[in-house]
Amino acid sequence: MFKVIATVSLLSLASLQASASSAAQACATARVGAALSVADIEQAERFYQAGLNMQRALSRDFPEHGLKMRLLCSATLSLEILQSDKAAPNPRGAFERDLVHGPSKLVVWVEDLQQSSDRLVALGATLNVSAFEEPNLGVRIAILTDPLGNPIQLNQPMPP
């Protein structure tokens, strides 16, 4: 089971009201939502569907704004993936924005850290920090980057 700590997107909530699919119903019960900007929406959608067992709830294109949106859901997470026609790679690197805005990442709670990490790596993620224990927080942590450069932190509760 996956749980995510992130921000809720108003676009997702408004879009859910217009959709009655089972995936959208799952989104309506999801406890947390997140939004990621990506350069390749199809690649991101495949990665998160396979890696985090998510289903597409909604697909919308807004050509007048040069924006594509996919809403993916699981029982506990809604993930809005956005691609803008105006987006361009930062010539100074993916983490340059962190110097101005602070770091951002997707934090996912998993039942089996090794299995989840292995599955994401097999789908194209990069393992940046191998699993380690943080006993003060009672958690095991691994840090990855998805194929499009978004940081993902996997957390697994440590046994008491």
Automatic annotation (TrEMBL):
Residues 30-157 form the VOC domain. It comes from the Bacteria. Residues 1-20 form the signal peptide. Keywords: Signal. The keyword Signal applies. The keyword Acetylation does not apply. It holds the Pfam family Glyoxalase. This is VOC domain-containing protein. It comes from Pseudomarimonas arenosa.
